[in-house]
Structure formats: structure tokens, C-alpha cells
Specification:
The complex is a heterodimer of chains A (458) and B (472). Chain A has 458 residues and is an alpha/beta fold. Among the domains of chain A are: 121 residues, Rossmann fold (3-Layer(aba) Sandwich), CATH 3.40.50.1980; 136 residues, Rossmann fold (3-Layer(aba) Sandwich). In chain A, 42% of the residues lie in helices and 16% in strands. Chain A contains 17 helices and 15 strands. Chain B has 472 residues and is α/β, with parallel strands linked by helices. In chain B, the strands form three sheets. A five-stranded parallel sheet of chain B has the order 11-10-9-12-13. A four-stranded parallel sheet of chain B has the order 2-1-3-4, sandwiched between helices. Chain B is globular. In chain B, α7 packs parallel to α9, α14 runs antiparallel to α15 and α15 packs parallel to α22. Chain B has three domains: 181 residues, Nitrogenase molybdenum iron protein domain (Rossmann fold); 122 residues, Rossmann fold; 100 residues, Nitrogenase molybdenum iron protein domain (Rossmann fold), CATH 3.40.50. The chains are: A alpha/beta (458), B alpha/beta (472). Chains A and B meet through β2, α2, β4, α3 and α4 of A and α4, α5, β2, α6 and α7 of B. β2 of chain A pairs antiparallel with β2 of chain B.
């Protein structure tokens, strides 16, 4: 049981937290032919845009209602209307995802009413889905915004299924914001290996996996289609990954009757076993040979790698679901979690295998990581890692000083195996070799001559 | 908000700006920011601009009063370098919550300032206003004033909430903060007749350091750079400089002009991008210093250094000519960069397909015409779709632009080079221009281009007619 502590600092220093509107925007970026629109000043969009571009190394479609001081005070309906119309004219999307920001939330802009009015005024917009989500950036964090956007899409877009339309082979997957495009691809392969047909909401693997389009598109290209969301109600099961997705899964179940199973994480041997077992049970298909082999490879990697993980002191800063995933798995590999810092509340925090979990910032991480063997955090922890001379294994968002962030995978046997190799190699590289001085203590009364040890050839 | 309103009027009334002078009183009042189009806008907000302009002051703490988006999404992004203190790279924000919005965030802000003082003891703290606290009426000026007294050090309010306008406006509002609270408040340890200010240079990728050795050699001292590799004390005492160079043409014109007005520091607008422009800038610096009493022999020494450096730079560019001759460059940037790099690119044999003149002044545009001829392509703004088409149809061989449009080029399978603020290579001064040509060559010569443009075997028409025997 970890003690969950909220930092009492008045000055957040080196923030870990990213905002709700950005999390919501990323969820919309996993939709095909979509344009996310942040309802706020243009900086809200441009900062988020730069962050996502640097993280994914991809063009990011993201627009703004460009609120000014005057429109903020008077209310932003004209800006929302103009924004939607401009996007519709210029980019012709299937879906516009509108996320509020702190400014428009403080003012109290009523997006629900705005959209009703805009719909009434502009029948030409009938072919465009408009989904709005309330995401003030003065509360919650990235994964909350993501989960809210997914929930709102379910509420607005999923059709109530007709009786008898259920397809036993179809599975909905609601991935948390901590999963990468690479993770989605990995999950799709696993699920399809059992003869099941997955639909991912959202699907970053379609839009942000780094593909080369045949021509220029101003909206997202690839991802979950609006039509696919309409039909989620005819699936046999919903798989939610990460505790943040529980609410969305329940909303989908209430709306359509599709039962859900939540997997809090899929990194590690036992939780991957449970996932395979579940897929086998719902499909009636035995676990394919390929995954039996991968399981063996993972077990072997655990045996080879445990020397380097055992008792290593690790400090982690990440959003709750990623913190949960990494801390539980590293704990299972024999590490001690000496620091756990996160951005927002989650029911999982109390069960994290550390003495305390701090709702704080990267300065809190820096304090807890002193003397650690490894830091797991985003790129912004690089300054702390440099100061402490502790290696940093980059996970989370943003990662702007490494390649391939979209393809870091953590789900299932193969990804866990590769994580053991990547983190194990990092730990191996800093393993301390003994020197003559290692066993010399201050309280020993050593003769003068022993201070010569440092001139002996090493 | 009255302080902000006052400052906005101040900034909009900028006699140093030619565009502004040409306006009627009525249009001038409306300000220099174009009305932003919702759903079709790009670019940063005023807060973004203010932070860009001030954060390079490396020994100060920079505290952002606002919800998490403002600082949480933007810290540790710009590659502005410091030769000493690193405090500017530590991010401070109040990350205000619902509580603050209901009860007001002033006390929270004050305590945040206290924590910074206790933990880091910086020589000064810059406190940035953002939209939400501006809206709920947090009085930043009053809090900073109280903190200044209590903690006995400068605490500077920067009133540039995002919704006030564009990034460019934010630059100017940051300049106003410097003029009102910083510049002229301290005295330098000593002065020389060779002291200059460089205004609007942010030392991105260490570009100031590409030029500084030349100034050092000439005995010209940078009393203060506003604000690249900046130190609070030096900016506070920058009013004792003899002359100033304004670098980024439109960003801090108010600072240069008002320092001339208040302290009699003459300035010129120059650039360290391009070989000829670097030489011109060095000459102008020297001339202004000599006009103000420095020994006239400086002019001769400048000519010697210029001659040596130009010869060296051209000689270094020459070897690239063979490979670069005829290569078509699409220059998509703004301001002075729309022309200042052109000469060096032409010298290396490259052809300019066109240049964007976003944020460029009338004079900038004249320079483009002078260099490229009257039928040069100039765009106010180039739509990504059009950029993509031009690259795809090989109207250009390489695009030089900022990170935003990077993927337009790369997805068209065309070479691209970053020349904006997130880059890691410095392109200033003589060495910088050689480095730019070298980077262009390195990019164009990469063997990947031939490979990535090839179709997959199964996309070739002949594929279906292959028979297995061919592989035996």
C-alpha cells in the first residue's frame, strides 16, 4: 500500500503534467479524417501542436478557435461557428473534435448549446460529426482528457444496436493514452491471431504510425473511422486497457449492452498470460503456436535479465496508468521502486509497489531519484538525470530527443521481452565495477602507505 | 487589465515601425495584429512571444502564472543557449487549480515566488501573466510589487496573456516589461567606448557565439545581449551602451527605439544571417561607435577582419559549387531571413525557387526583388497543400523552413532543413553561412533519397509478369 501524497509546493517546478485538452486532442487524432479544434487562445493549440510534432515527428492537424480577450469575455459562439465552418470548407473532415480550455471553461461557454445552434443555422454541416468535450486545463491531466474524449465519442457516435446484430467475432478495444501506435499494432496482431476482428477507439496506429500518404491531407489520415464507431454496439466484447478507460467501457456497455473486460496493464508475463487466456476463451481458438513460442522467449529473457534488475533502485515519473504498468512490472522483475511521481488521481495509486506516490512534478522525481540506478520518465527529466548522473529510460510524453517514440511497445510477450533487453542493457551499462577503493571505509585506521593504492596499476 | 491596455496602446503606437507610420490614426489604434481566423490560424500567442523574448535571460527565474497548458506544454523546447547559469532551463509555474480560480490566485503566486527565492535565490524573477488569471483579475503588478519589497530583489511582471494577440505582439510586450522595470535600474561596473547592445538575438543553437569572437577580436564589447545568453544585471545596466544593433527585425523594435529616445543610444537594423549582411552589420556597429567617440581606426580594423572572413567563407563555400549548382531551393521563413541567406545560397550555385515574405517589411521585400529579380516568387503565406505540390512536382529540390512545415517536405519525399528556432545548428556569421551550405549539401547528398523514392516491387507494373524462375 503506497501513501498517496499531494505535493504541497506552491510552485510547480519542471512540470510532469500535460493538460486535459491535449489528451483529448490526441484521442481525436486517432480518428480518421478528423480535425481536433481547441476552443481557446491560439497559444493553447500552438504549444500542444509543437509538443506533439516533436514527439511523433509527424504533421499534426490541430486547429484553434483563436479566442481574443474580447471574444473570451463576450462568449465564444462566433469563434466556434467560424472555426467549424473554416475547417469544414478547407479540409472537409468527417469529424471535428472540439475541446474546451481553461479560458473558455472559466467563462462558461456552453458548447452543448453552441453546437445545437450551429447545427440549426448550418444544415450544410449535417455530414460532419461534431463532438465536444469539456477539458479545463486547470484540473485533471492528459489521460483524463483522453478518456473523456473517448467517452464523449461513445455517447455521441455509437448507435444503439438492433437485436440480433451482434457479431461474436468482433471485439472493441479502448486503449489508454499511454499506449503507442506500435502497441495498437501489436494488440491488433494478437487479437487477429485468434480469428477475432478488433476495432480500436481511438486508433493511433492508423494515423500516427509514420506512414507516407500518397497525397497531401490536411486532416488526420487513417485511424478509427466514424462509421466504425457507429457500429461498436454489435461487437461481442469490449477490451479496455488501462484503468483510465473503465468509464468509457462502462458508458459503452450501458449504451449497447456489450460487456467489457478491463486489463489494467499488459506488460509482464502473468498479465500477458491472462490476456491470452481471455482471447482464447472468447474466441474458442487455442493460443497460437507463435505466442507459445514468444512466451518461452519472454521466460528466457526474464531468466537472462533478472541479474541486472534484482534490487535495482528505480524512480518513475509518469501518468497513473503508465506509472502503474512500469512500476508493477519492474517490481515483478525484482526492482525497488524508490520514487513514484504522477500527474493526476487514479484508484490504482494506492496499490503501486512503493512507499509513497507523489502527485507532483519532475523536481519531486529528482529528489526521490537521488542515488537511484534508473529513472523512467519523459525527455523532460533529462536535466534531472544529468544532474544526478542516473541513466534515463525515456517513456511517456513528450519524448523529443529520441527516434521511434511511436513504436516503443509495452504490451504482450514480445514487447515485454524487448523491454527487458532495452532496460537491462541500460542497467548493465552503468553497473559499477569494483576498484581497490571500494572496500575502504572511513572508520578504518589505515597505514599511510595504503593511500598509495590509487597509484597501483589498475 | 488597465496596465495591459496601456501597454498595448503603447506598443501599437510605434513610430520606429515603417508599417505603422504608414497607417492612419484610426487603423493604428487597432494594432498591428491581423484578426485571427478561427479554424484557420497558425502560430503562437502573446505569452509564447513574451517567453521567447525573455527566457534566454539565463540567471533569472521565469515563473508562469497560469493553468498547466501554458508552461507544461512549452518548457524545455527552445534551444537557446547559456554560457553559464542554467536556472532559465528550470520550469516554474503556479499550475493554478479550480481553487485559485474561485478564490483568486494572487496568494498562490506570492507563495510561489517565495519558494523560488528560498530554493534558488535568483538575482531576479520574471512573472508571466496568462489568460485565465488575467480573466479572473489577478493583479500581477501588485503581487510583483509586494514580492519585490518583501524579497528585496527585482520581480518583473510580464503582461502578455495569450489572448492579447500574436507571438510578435508578445515579443513587444516583453520589451515593454524590460523598459519599464529592468533597463536603466542598475549601473555597469565599468564602460568603454566600444560597448554595444545586441537587441532581439536569442542565441538559438549558440548563434551569438558564432559572431562574438569577431567582436572580441575587434575589441567591441557586448555590454548586453537582449536577451540571448543574457544576465539580469547586464540587461539592467544596458542603458550605458554606446550603440545598438537590432537583430530580429520586428520583434523588439520598441526596445531599440525607446532606448534611443531615453538614453541616446543610436541603433541600426541588421542581420548576422548571410555573409554580406554580417559584414554590413560589423561596419555599421563600428560606424555608430566611431560616431559616438570611439577611435576611427576601428573602421580600418573592421575592414581587415571583414576582408579576411569573407575571403575565407567564400573559399569554403566554393567546393560545394559543383554539387549544388542548379539545385532549386524553396525558402519558407519570414522577416530578414527571406533575403539575408539568399546571396550565400546563390554563391554556392543554388537557384531560389521562391521565398515567403511573411513578417517581412517593405524593405525586406525590396531586397528580395533586388536579389531574385522582379519575377521572383514571393508568398505572404504558402498553403501546406501548395508547398507539398511544388515539392512533389520537383519545382524545388529542397525546402528550408521551420519545424511546422517539416513533414510537408518529408512526406513528399523531399529534402528539408530546419532554419527556425528549434534547430541545433547555428547559421549566423561567416562560419554559420558556410555551415548552412554544408548542411544543405549533406542533406541533398544523402543516399536515402534515391531509395525512398523507389516504388515497392509489387507496385511496379512489371511485377505481375514476373515468374519465379527469374529469381533462380
Amino acid at each position: 500500500m503506497a501513501k498517496v501524497i499531494t505535493s504541497t509546493k506552491q510552485c510547480m517546478t519542471n512540470p510532469l503534467r500535460l493538460s486535459q485538452p491535449l489528451g483529448a486532442a490526441l484521442a481525436f487524432l486517432g480518428m480518421d479524417r478528423c480535425m481536433p479544434l481547441l476552443h481557446g487562445a491560439q497559444g493553447c493549440t500552438s504549444f500542444g501542436l509543437v509538443l506533439l510534432v516533436r514527439h511523433f515527428r509527424e504533421a499534426i492537424p490541430l486547429q484553434t478557435t483563436a479566442m481574443t480577450e474580447v471574444t473570451t469575455v463576450l462568449g465564444g459562439i462566433d469563434n466556434v461557428e467560424q472555426g467549424i465552418l473554416n475547417i469544414w470548407k478547407k479540409t472537409n473532415p468527417d469529424l471535428i473534435g472540439i475541446c474546451t480550455t481553461g479560458t473558455t471553461e472559466v467563462k462558461g461557454d456552453d458548447l452543448n448549446a453552441y453546437i445545437t445552434l450551429i447545427r440549426a443555422r448550418h444544415p450544410e454541416l449535417d455530414d460532419v460529426e461534431l463532438v465536444h468535450v469539456n477539458t479545463p486545463d486547470f484540473s485533471g491531466a492528459f489521460q483524463d482528457g483522453w478518456a473523456r474524449a473517448v467517452t464523449r465519442m461513445i455517447e455521441e457516435l455509437v448507435e444503439i444496436p438492433e437485436l440480433g446484430t451482434r457479431d461474436a467475432r468482433r471485439v472493441n478495444v479502448l486503449p489508454g493514452s499511454h499506449l503507442t501506435p506500435g502497441d495498437i499494432d501489436e494488440l491488433r496482431e494478437m487479437i487477429e491471431a485468434f480469428g477475432l476482428i478488433p476495432t480500436f477507439l481511438p486508433d493511433l496506429s492508423g494515423s500516427l504510425d509514420g506512414h507516407i500518404p500518397s497525397e497531401f491531407t490536411p486532416t488526420t489520415l487513417g485511424g478509427c473511422g466514424v462509421d466504425e464507431v457507429h457500429g461498436l454496439g454489435s461487437a461481442a466484447w469490449t477490451i479496455a486497457i488501462g484503468a483510465q478507460m473503465r468509464g468509457a467501457a462502462i458508458t459503452l456497455e450501458h449504451r449497447t449492452g456489450v460487456p467489457y473486460r478491463l486489463f489494467e496493464r499488459l506488460t509482464g508475463l502473468e498479465c500477458s498470460d491472462k490476456f491470452m487466456e481471455f482471447l482464447s476463451r472468447i474466441s474458442g481458438v487455442p493460443v497460437p503456436r507463435r505466442y507459445r513460442r514468444l512466451r518461452g522467449q519472454l521466460v528466457d529473457a526474464m531468466l537472462d535479465g533478472h541479474f541486472y534488475f534484482g534490487d535495482k533502485r528505480v524512480a518513475i515519473a509518469a501518468e497513473p496508468d503508465l506509472l502503474w504498468t512500469m512500476s508493477m512490472w519492474l517490481h515483478e522483475m525484482g526492482c525497488q521502486i524508490v520514487g513514484a511521481v504522477t500527474s493526476t488521481m487514479s484508484p490504482l495509486l494506492e496499490d503501486i509497489p512503493a512507499d509513497e506516490v507523489i502527485l507532483g512534478d519532475l523536481q519531486d522525481l529528482e529528489v526521490s531519484a537521488a542515488g537511484a540506478d534508473l529513472i523512467v520518465a519523459n525527455s523532460q527529466a533529462r536535466q534531472a538525470a544529468d544532474r544526478l548522473h542516473v541513466p534515463l529510460f525515456r517513456m511517456g510524453m513528450p519524448i523529443f530527443d529520441r527516434l521511434g517514440t511511436a513504436h516503443i511497445t509495452t504490451v504482450g510477450y514480445r514487447a515485454t521481452r524487448d523491454l527487458i533487453f532495452a532496460i537491462g542493457n541500460t542497467l548493465m551499462a552503468v553497473d559499477h565495477e569494483p576498484t581497490q577503493a571500494t572496500w575502504v571505509r572511513d572508520d578504518m585506521e589505515l597505514p599511510q602507505s595504503s593511500s598509495d593504492f590509487n597509484i597501483l596499476p589498475s | 487589465m488597465s496596465d495591459l491596455k496601456h501597454q498595448l496602446q503603447n506598443v501599437f503606437h510605434e513610430p520606429g515601425c515603417a508599417t505603422n507610420r504608414a497607417k492612419s490614426t484610426e487603423t493604428r489604434k487597432k494594432g498591428c495584429t491581423k484578426q485571427l481566423a478561427p479554424g484557420a490560424a497558425a502560430g503562437g500567442c502573446a505569452f509564447d512571444g513574451a517567453k521567447i523574448a525573455l527566457q534566454p535571460i539565463a540567471d533569472a527565474a521565469h515563473l508562469i502564472h497560469g493553468p498547466i497548458s501554458c508552461e507544461g506544454h512549452s518548457w524545455d523546447q527552445r534551444n537557446s543557449k547559456s554560457s553559464g547559469p542554467m536556472l532559465y532551463r528550470t520550469s516554474f509555474t503556479t499550475a493554478i487549480s479550480e481553487q485559485d480560480i474561485i478564490f483568486g490566485g494572487e496568494k498562490h503566486l506570492f507563495h510561489a515566488i517565495r519558494e523560488i527565492v528560498e530554493k534558488h535565490d535568483p538575482p531576479a524573477i520574471f512573472v508571466y501573466q496568462t489568460c485565465v488569471p488575467a480573466m479572473i483579475g489577478d493583479d500581477l503588478v501588485a503581487v510583483c510589487k509586494a514580492a519585490r519589497t518583501k524579497f528585496n530583489r527585482p520581480v518583473v511582471p510580464v503582461l502578455a496573456p495569450g489572448f492579447a494577440g500574436s507571438k510578435n505582439l508578445g515579443n513587444k510586450l516583453a520589451g515593454e516589461a524590460l523598459l519599464e522595470y529592468v533597463i536603466g535600474t542598475e549601473e555597469p561596473e565599468h564602460t568603454t567606448p566600444y560597448d554595444i547592445n545586441i537587441i532581439g538575438e536569442y542565441n538559438v543553437a549558440g548563434e551569438l557565439w558564432q559572431v562574438k569572437p569577431l567582436l572580441d577580436e575587434l575589441g567591441i564589447r557586448i555590454l548586453s545581449c537582449i536577451s540571448g545568453d543574457g544576465r539580469y544585471h547586464r540587461i539592467a545596466s544596458s542603458h550605458r551602451a554606446r550603440a545598438a544593433m537590432m537583430v530580429c527585425s520586428k520583434a523588439l523594435i520598441n526596445v531599440a527605439r525607446k532606448m534611443q529616445e531615453r538614453y541616446g543610444i543610436p541603433f541600426f537594423e541588421g542581420s548576422f544571417y548571410g555573409i554580406g549582411d554580417t559584414s554590413d552589420s560589423l561596419r555599421q556597429i563600428a560606424q555608430l561607435l566611431v560616431d559616438r567617440g570611439a577611435d576611427a581606426e576601428l573602421l580600418g580594423r573592421v575592414e581587415k577582419v571583414v576582408a579576411r572572413e569573407e575571403a575565407r567563407a567564400w573559399a569554403q563555400i566554393l567546393p560545394f559549387r559543383e554539387r549544388l549548382t542548379g539545385k532549386k531551393v524553396l525558402l519558407n521563413t519570414g522577416g530578414v531571413k527571406s533575403w539575408s541567406m539568399v546571396a550565400a545560397l546563390q554563391e554556392a550555385g543554388m537557384v531560389l525557387t521562391g521565398t515567403s515574405v511573411k513578417k517581412s517589411t517593405a524593405e525586406d521585400k525590396d531586397r528580395v526583388k533586388e536579389l531574385l529579380g522582379n519575377d521572383a516568387h514571393m508568398w505572404e503565406s504558402l498553403a501546406p497543400r501548395e508547398m507539398y505540390r511544388m515539392l512533389r512536382e520537383s519545382e524545388a529540390d529542397i525546402m528550408l523552413s521551420g519545424g511546422r512545415t517539416q513533414f510537408v517536405a518529408l512526406k513528399a519525399l523531399m529534402p528539408w532543413l530546419d532554419i527556425n528556432q528549434e534547430r541545433h545548428h547555428g547559421y549566423a556569421g561567416y562560419d554559420g553561412m558556410v555551415a548552412l551550405v554544408r548542411e544543405i549539401d549533406r542533406t541533398l547528398a544523402n543516399p536515402i533519397w534515391r531509395q525512398v523514392r523507389k516504388l515497392a516491387p509489387w507496385d511496379l507494373e512489371a511485377f505481375s509478369t514476373h515468374s519465379a524462375e527469374e529469381f533462380v
